[in-house]
Fold this sequence. Notes:
Largest sheet: 9 strands, mixed
Order of helices and strands: HEHEHEHEHEHEHEHHEEEEEEEHHEH
Distance between the termini: 39 Å
Strand content: 15-25%
Number of strands: 15
Amino acid sequence: xxxxxxxxxxxxxxxxxxxxxxxxxxxxxxxxxxxxxxxxxxxxxxxxxxxxxxxxxxxxxxxxxxxxxxxxxxxxxxxxxxxxxxxxxxxxxxxxxxxxxxxxxxxxxxxxxxxxxxxxxxxxxxxxxxxxxxxxxxxxxxxxxxxxxxxxxxxxxxxxxxxxxxxxxxxxxxxxxxxxxxxxxxxxxxxxxxxxxxxxxxxxxxxxxxxxxxxxxxxxxxxxxxxxxxxxxxxxxxxxxxxxxxxxxxxxxxxxxxxxxxxxxxxxxxxxxxxxxxxxxxxxxxxxxxxxxxxxxxxxxxxxxxxxxxxxxxxxxxxxxxxxxxxxxxxxxxxxxxxxxxxxxxxxxxxxxxxxxxxxxxxxxxxxxxxxxxxxx
Length: 377
């Protein structure tokens, strides 16, 4: 991280268009842009004119575009990068032309809804010479990076087994309830435990041992598979299990057990609060809650530093592809009813816990415009 960026002093700022003005962009990303010190919002893109008008006024942004005029924005010279927060299946629609035009892209996860579309995004970045980052905010979060550091140092011995629950009761009125599996919990929430499995083990899953999806009528989500449970096998006969759900009450936890100890995180994936570790190492128990940080501002500051300093970001398109390879194998297992191999996307680069940590203070959450949390009140 550059000194200028760290202090918010001097230097050029990366000019962003925010593409997709739903709850995650409005409540989590946009409020923290100003205090990154190296980023600013210069354009907004949405299919909702009310959002464009009100948010443009709130953030002092004059360049407002509908989705159908996105192509025109790319040639205006008013932006250097986009933060892409449209529904999952619309990522390639905006990322590909932006990258081909030399506009850098920070894309929310999953990178797309298939490896084919994600590979198209990565290819566009190569053609346009632009930088692509998949928005894995936990790659910069202090508690997560501390866990990775401890595991790599051998504090829990050889990692053997992983279990995670990530659940939230979805509001039936939310768009995620109406667009099938690509908007369901596997694609929407699954990247969190899948990515955690990969960065904690430091290895890629090779097989979906089992996958089950069920529906709960009381959740009111119609024909959507609202709960998915998965078992994965990694090299060395290590196992990882996780459950994601739109029907269950809110839970956000993981535990990794090794031959000499364990690390549990609860909460493990959330933002707006400090994440916590419960450790058993050498027969001794300890607990630590890490200070809350602005996870979205931190990942944006990191990406802007990469752009300004000519560095490739760590959670790049390859990282997004690796998770999608696992998701595709899970979908295949759900359909076949038996084990399915993962078409492994080997990583050539992994998290650097010392270089990537971000500690921006938290910011207040504003009242959203024509957007709401996906969870039931």
